[in-house]
Amino acid sequence: MTDSWRGYHLIGGNPTLDLVNTVSWRLDPARTFDRLTAPGFLSLWLTRTDLAHLTDDETAVIDPLSELRETVYRLLTAPVPADVARFGASVAAARGLAVAEPAMPLRWTVPINRIDDVVPALTLIADDFLRSPDAALVRQCAGAGCGWLFLDRTRNHSRQWCSSQDCGNRERARRHYRKAHPARG
Ligand SMILES: [Zn+2]
């Protein structure tokens, strides 16, 4: 269970990007690792993101949750009308299950009390995020093959890496090596 967490970091700044980042090495098919398929990962993720504390069997929601995740990923990186429509239909369905506190501004959420609540809850969380100004700050890591998404809150929009310790260091080392050994590229 802890193995499935190795190399994963909650760097997205919000649950929507952290969900997208449950795929590691997305842009390098030889290394791609989908953590959602690892037994127990989802429960651990829900706990560590503070969204819910569940012990239910998560098997049944892995496929629909992956589908939501991939739709959101495409909306954030290369949106097409079909994905907007697909996401819109999911939001409409989730809204049917949502409740809001009687306080302004109204915020519709699906409380996560059992595993079946996870997909509609994350759909509405993603909807809030995709309609927020932060959605325009999403960047994809420049590390070779990485593919993780993060919020670039730097003033001049200059952040390149998901993490300066991981991809940042790796790329700096790669560039340094190329400079030192140009022939071996
Ligand atoms: Zn990265």
UniProtKB/TrEMBL annotation:
Pfam families: ABATE, zf-CGNR. InterPro entries: ABATE, ABATE_dom_sf, Znf_CGNR. Residues 138-179 form the Zinc finger CGNR domain. This is Zinc finger CGNR domain-containing protein.
